[in-house]
Design goal:
The complex is a heterodimer of chains A (112) and B (111). Chain A contains no helices and 11 strands. Chain A has 112 residues and is mainly beta. In chain A, a hairpin with a 5-residue loop joins strand 4 and strand 5. By secondary structure, chain B is mainly β. Chain B contains no helices and 11 strands. The radius of gyration of chain B is 13 Å and the shape is globular. Classes of the chains: A mainly beta (112), B mainly beta (111).
Chain lengths: 112, 111
């Protein structure tokens, strides 16, 4: 079945460590996105990529990094520079004409 | 900048209609969306409306768009317990490069 796969679903990190969240899609979509979700704040855009080897900062990119070496993959690294990384992270890809987003099941990161 | 606003909570009785409202600021939005999120999961698209439409109906769902007032609503007829979730309104920005989300409305169903 086509879709977005995120891993891991749950992740615990000690302060000062970098972690990488995986996002893979087999929908053949060019555009991919990373959102952060905090309670009561909706979704905030971290980074997005409209094509392979290209990506742009979203509204809250500080402390995060991404790469887009393959169309299918858009990993997100949460660096130690991110001051408050505990959150639910959602990856998505979009259908070009309508902009409809297809989401993964999310990764919940907790910093201990 | 672009902004999307919605109320945080809505409680309805099972079998009644639910109406979730949303306002947005970008008058050049091309598409507006409603997404549903169940606990601990990603978002699923419920429906969307193109900006040149006033209404769209899909089974129990009715979307109304008032472009003049920049107001979007989602009506769920005959609300069931399985409709309990957070509902997000979203718009496609005029640059078409990103989707802007509201904060979500948590819909709870009482017997």
């Amino acid at each position: 079945d086509g879709g977005i796969t995120q891993s891991p679903k749950y992740l615990f990190r000690k302060e000062g460590q970098n972690v990488t969240l995986s996002c893979e899609q087999n929908l053949n979509h060019d555009a991919m996105y990373w959102y952060r979700q905090d309670p009561g704040q909706g979704l905030r855009l971290i980074y997005y990529s409209q094509i392979v080897n290209d990506f742009q900062k979203g509204d809250i990119a500080e402390g995060y990094s991404v790469s887009r070496e393959k169309k299918e993959s858009f990993p997100l690294t949460v660096t130690s520079a991110q001051k408050n990384p505990t959150a639910f992270y959602l990856c998505a890809s979009s259908r070009e004409n309508t902009g409809e987003l297809f989401f993964g099941e999310g990764s919940r990161l907790t910093v201990l | 900048g672009e902004d999307v606003e919605q109320s945080l909570f809505l409680s309805v009785r099972e079998g009644d209609s639910s109406v979730i409202n949303c306002t947005y600021t970008d008058s050049s939005s091309t598409y507006l969306y409603w997404y549903k999120q169940e606990p601990g999961a990603g978002l699923q698209l419920l429906t969307y409306i193109f900006s040149n439409m006033d209404m769209k109906q899909d089974q129990r769902l009715t979307v109304l768009l008032n472009k003049k007032d920049k107001h979007l609503s989602l009506r769920i007829a005959d609300t069931q317990t399985g409709d309990s979730a957070i509902y997000f309104c979203a718009e496609r920005s005029s640059s078409a490069s990103k989707i802007i989300f509201g904060s979500g409305t948590r819909l709870s169903i009482r017997p």
